[in-house]
Specification:
By secondary structure, the protein is α/β, with parallel strands linked by helices. The protein is 45% helix and 17% strand. Helix 10 links the parallel strand 11 and strand 12. The longest helix has 26 residues.
Length: 457
């Protein structure tokens, strides 16, 4: 069946300096030729690949609507692997809409979400890991997330997976060659000789699998609970970290009665900052609900910022907060109100917390030091190279299945099982790796993956 030609506005909605209409399919260049009149008088269909042509965009009635640049690129060396063309217009929504409608008159249809990238995958221009990296790159909220997505798009993770896949395929091919051609002079298949390579591949897959925790934090942000007793300055700290007034601040204790969540990038680290109600005993029903939500935020947090009022001695509520923050994987004691004389016992706090920062949320003093400290303690060990960090559950589960199958094969070989039994586990690992890159993925699964993409990509 002949592939349809598709088109979509590839730039974000709203007015802008430039707006782009993207077209892909067998009739892409022909369709654009019908709605674009080059200034040089030559038919657009005769233009050189990847060379911008200046001219006039025509609307549905053939009337001039914009002066634009157009560019063509022919298969197979294009993003989608098909003939493609782009119209670079002024960023008026009206112009872009009319240009798109004019293309629809040329038997072009509206592209579905992610359809350009889906065609690139189906046409072998990228594998599924690279395709998912496109969406990650668009959604990236920090430089670290963008770098990882860009490296994945460049094939960093795919090369590692393909190397393992190729080695396992060679191993299976060797076994079958020995079985199918016993009269040929082929080196005997010795399962024990495969163990070093299997163990190396198991370790490589385990490293990839373990990278998912870091990848999840890259894409979703690190859940960070800002906790403390009432009036310690939690909301003021949230505002200082965000750089604008998001939460209401007041000298009246108990102002915050619900959790407030915002994202912020501090020293390159994406945080999901959660301002919470002050932890204390109260008879106020609504405040009690806020306190319960504070405790829930602490249970789910990867980082706790324990806010203490440096202008007052530690209270019972402060000790309660410090005790409850112990369960959080990482914590920083934030001694607030450095603009006032220090009364709090700082040595006592330093004895309880390995990470202590003194700040003034009121005038942002010490906030840059706090940001650097957050980045330092979250960095942990040296992270995997960019592009070798898995960012979604589908990828992590496929790697886990492959690793488990290879582990079963290696253990079976040591226990003396027959080669064909061990190879069935290796074939299961191959199937899992194939699903990771898209070699053996079902069509409905592919469809679900591309549904999260934006139109025009």
């Amino acid at each position: 069946m002949r592939t349809e030609t598709i088109a979509a506005i590839a730039t974000a909605p709203g007015r802008s300096a430039i707006g782009i209409i993207r077209v892909s399919g067998p009739d892409a260049v022909t369709a654009v030729s019908a709605v674009f009149r080059p200034e040089n008088g030559k038919p657009f269909s005769e233009s050189e690949d990847r060379k911008m042509v200046y001219g006039t965009l025509l609307d549905r009635d053939g009337l001039p609507i914009d002066r634009i640049l157009a560019v063509a690129a022919r298969a197979p060396n294009t993003y989608t692997g098909e003939d493609t063309a782009e119209l670079h217009c002024h960023g008026s929504p009206a112009v872009l809409a009319e240009g798109l409608l004019a293309l629809f008159r040329q038997r072009v249809r509206q592209a579905l979400p992610g359809e350009f990238t889906k065609r690139a995958f189906l046409n072998g221009r990228m594998d599924l890991i690279q395709a998912e990296a496109v969406a990650d790159l668009i959604d990236a909220e920090s430089a670290a997330a963008a770098r990882n997505a860009a490296a994945q798009l460049g094939g960093a993770a795919s090369r590692k997976i393909t190397g393992i896949y190729s080695r396992l395929l060679d191993l299976i091919a060797h076994f079958h060659a020995v079985v199918d051609y016993p009269d040929e002079e082929i080196d005997p298949f010795l399962p024990e000789s495969c163990l070093p390579a299997l163990e190396a591949d198991i370790q490589a897959l385990q490293t990839l699998e373990q990278s998912f925790d870091r990848g999840r934090l890259l894409t979703e942000g690190i859940k960070t609970a800002i906790v403390g007793r009432p009036n310690a300055g939690k909301s003021s700290l949230l505002n200082a970290l965000l750089g604008y007034d998001r939460a209401i601040t007041s000298s009246i204790p108990g102002t915050t009665r619900d959790t407030i969540e915002e994202k912020a990038v501090l020293d390159g680290v994406l945080l999901r900052l959660i301002d919470t109600a002050g932890l204390r005993e109260t008879k106020d029903t609504i405040e009690q609900l806020g306190v319960e939500r504070t405790r829930a935020a602490l249970r789910e947090a990867e980082l706790a910022l324990v806010v203490l009022d440096g202008s007052e001695p530690l209270r019972t509520e402060d000790h309660i907060v410090m005790e409850e923050a112990v369960a959080v994987p990482r914590s920083i004691a934030v001694v607030n109100k450095s603009d006032l004389p220090l009364v709090l016992d700082l040595d006592f706090v330093r004895a309880r917390f390995s990470n202590v920062c003194v700040v003034s949320a009121l005038d942002s003093a010490g906030i840059s030091t706090l940001s650097a400290e957050i980045a330092r303690i979250l960095d942990g060990n040296t992270p995997p190279p960019a592009g070798e960090i898995l960012t979604n559950v589908r990828q992590a589960e496929a790697v886990a299945r492959a690793r488990e199958s290879l582990r079963a094969a290696a253990d079976g070989i040591r226990d003396g099982i027959t080669p064909d039994a061990a190879l069935s586990d290796i074939e299961a690992a191959l199937a899992a790796l194939g699903q990771l890159t898209g070699r053996t993925l079902q069509e409905d699964v592919v469809g679900r993956i591309f549904e999260r993409f934006c139109v025009g990509k």
